[in-house]
Amino acid sequence: RKEVEQDPGPFNVPEGATVAFNCTYSNSASQSFFWYRQDCRKEPKLLMSVYSSGNEDGRFTAQLNRASQYISLLIRDSKLSDSATYLCVVNNWGYSSASKIIFGSGTRLSIRP
Amino acid sequence: DAGVTQSPTHLIKTRGQHVTLRCSPISGHKSVSWYQQVLGQGPQFIFQYYEKEERGRGNFPDRFSARQFPNYSSELNVNALLLGDSALYLCASSLSGEPLPNYGYTFGSGTRLTVV
């Protein structure tokens, strides 16, 4: 089982739609979580951190469920500019040196006009 | 302020050759991490250096090595290149070794390595 798993998509949704992605992780002691956005042939950029209480940034809402070991990202009122790959990132700092910061394979999102 | 800078941006090498990739972190950041990203996959952790010491190593062969200099810049070296080493190599910079909430890691734009 992969340490961090994401549905690869692609998700193809119309502009204005609401879309949600999930990401599951295997290490129950993982300490912190992030969502990154990566545009085609560009570097990943931090979208938002994910907190246990859930957090919102404009149209984006991130949730963490430690009991079920998954995090989610909800995008409301999607824009064409939201088209990108969304990477789930899990921080296992302090554990085995080969598993500190783990990226999922990413979920591709395409917004159509 | 300059962000994370990587050089070169693109590189073409032949199988068996050696390559050195360079990274300068954001000013004041003491940690540099290296990632390999092949097409269609998420970045895979290669190395992390903090205060010039290796803090972590991913599941990569010994052909991969790295170091961090007193000014916190870093080099990634890959020997005996294979076709499968073709990828985007990303450098990530952070204040401390651990990604902090709201800051995470800041990535450079990467070096795209093609091995032919």
Report the count of strand segments of chain A.
11
Cα-atom radius of gyration of chain B: 13 Å
Q: What is the count of helical runs of chain A?
A: 0
SSE ordering of chain A:
EEEEEEEEEEE
The shape of chain A, in one word, is: globular
The helix content of chain A is under 10%
C-alpha end-to-end distance of chain A: 37 Å
What's the count of strands of chain B? 11
- Mass-distribution shape of chain B: globular
Content of β-strand of chain A: over 45%
N-to-C series of helices and strands of chain B: EEEEEEEEEEE
Short description:
The complex is a heterodimer of chains A (113) and B (116). With 113 residues, chain A is mainly β. Chain A has strands spanning 4-6, 11-14, 19-25, 32-38, 45-50, 55-57, 60-65, 70-75, 84-91, 101-103, 107-112.
Any overview of this molecule?
- The complex is a heterodimer of chains A (113) and B (116).
- Chain A is mainly beta and 113 residues long.
- Chain A is built from no helices and eleven strands.
- In chain A, strands 2, 4, 5, 9, 10 and 11 form a six-stranded mixed beta sheet that branches. In chain A, strands 1-3-8-7-6 form a five-stranded antiparallel beta sheet, with no helix packed on it.
- The N and C termini of chain A lie far apart (37 Å).
- The model of chain A has no long low-confidence stretch (mean pLDDT 90).
- By secondary structure, chain B is an all-beta fold.
- Helix content of chain B is 0%, strand content 49%.
- Chain B is built from no helices and eleven strands.
- In chain B, strands 2, 4, 5, 6, 9, 10 and 11 form a seven-stranded mixed beta sheet that branches. A four-stranded antiparallel beta sheet of chain B has the order 1-3-8-7, with no helix packed on it.
- The model of chain B has no long low-confidence stretch (mean pLDDT 92).
- The chains are: A mainly beta (113), B mainly beta (116).
- The A-B interface holds A 4, 8, 32, 34, 36, 42-46, 49, 51, 87, 89, 91, 93, 97-106 and B 33, 35, 40-45, 48, 55-59, 90, 97-99, 101-110.
